[in-house]
Amino acid sequence: MNIETMDYQKLLKEVTTILGRFSKQDRTIDETSLLVNDLGLDSLQVMEVVHDLEDTFDISFPLNNLSDVRTVKDLVQEIHQLIEAG
Amino acid sequence: MGLFNKLEPIAVARKALEEFGVDPFNVVIEDIISPTEALIMGRRTLLVGTNNYLGLTFDPECIEAAREATLLQGTGTTGSRMANGTFDSHRALEGELADFYNCSNAIVFSTGFVANLGMISTLTGPGDTILLDSDSHASIYDGCRMSGAAMIRFRHNNTGDLDKRLGRLGERAKESLIIVEGIYSMLGDRAPLKEIVEIKNRYGAWLMVDEAHSLGVLGKKGRGLVEEADVEKDVDFIIGTFSKSLGTIGGFCVSNHSELDLVRYASRSYVFTASPSPATIASVRVALKAVAARPELRTKLWENANQLYEGIRKMGFTVGPEPSPVVAVYMPSREETLVCWKALLDQGVYVNLVLPPAAPQGKSLLRCSVSAAHSSTQIEGVLKAFASLPRG
Lengths: 86, 392
Prior knowledge:
Chain A is mainly α. Chain A has helices spanning 8-22, 43-57, 72-85.
């Protein structure tokens, strides 16, 4: 995946697909979805999501960065920053 | 409720447990009879979940050493290692730990949990990176969080995953600390340490091995997985506990890095907590000698471990990945785990109940740990109790 040319929407789509594999709720995932309350992810699943995100985007995603992540949008922005930081 | 509002889910879960007539997470030992038996709810009960691997809690020499130390030095130090809490015996034990591991330096902490907190949070800080196995103990996770270092988690025992994550760090890999365990506490499996050492050396990273469940259990002299895998010279820091094979409470770190001594001045969990009591230190010193001098304890431990692991496996239960003194029995659901745990207790067999998120991969487990002090007949009794469990 060429991360340099990936725009936000493409990133969102990719992240949404990954989250869809873990979500316990039968609902549409959008930017405003809350990872825990809306998607029903528990702490272990969130960490599994991080593994998949790291491997999909070839990034290091420190668990410390999760503390500010509540919504899908937060997550996408965090990944965007990590990609930009190289 | 105010501040307690966040504990509401726990209150709900605990209420659901009440119908079992016993809270599995607050079992009271009414009388401890031996390393392998206790009185629980008025019943003589086999203990198969104590991590008392070598059964030394009732060793006469350990008890006598603790008694003598109490008589001579009092019941406690009432101070931290940095203040008035370093007695000659604390220093002597550190010397003996260093000798035992053929290392130059050792530090004794007040618990194993505190040893991880203190070492990890002092060695690493903002700007550093820690790569930790996903099944790491809570004390490792907490130490990492306290440190402020970037925490990168790799899939359990997956060396390819570790390699890939180190590779992404580039030059930063040289300033990173890899943390693994000798035997993992929940599933009882070993880390693939030889492969991890090869990766560590290739990237120039640092390596810490927590031998909490493998000290006294693995290696000809009982030095743990680092000894068994013959990688003692390649491991930067070994963490251990006194509260399992050594039968008391406390923790330590050994290393060949001479700078380890500086940690004493910087580690808050060393500086600001009371040191282990004289009785604890005296007992550990005797137990440590027994680990090396009494290999028959390890032989018996492994006989028991294999008997229990194979016995439960042959009944058709799904067990942990390899035979080990920690025998993890996977259960199909949380509810069945609770029912089976209670059924075992009603038959006089105590094992650990492990529910998510304490167990890896969101699983529910009946976790057994065997001791060298178990007789073969006692293990047969445990197997008989497992055989009678209701099966979905």
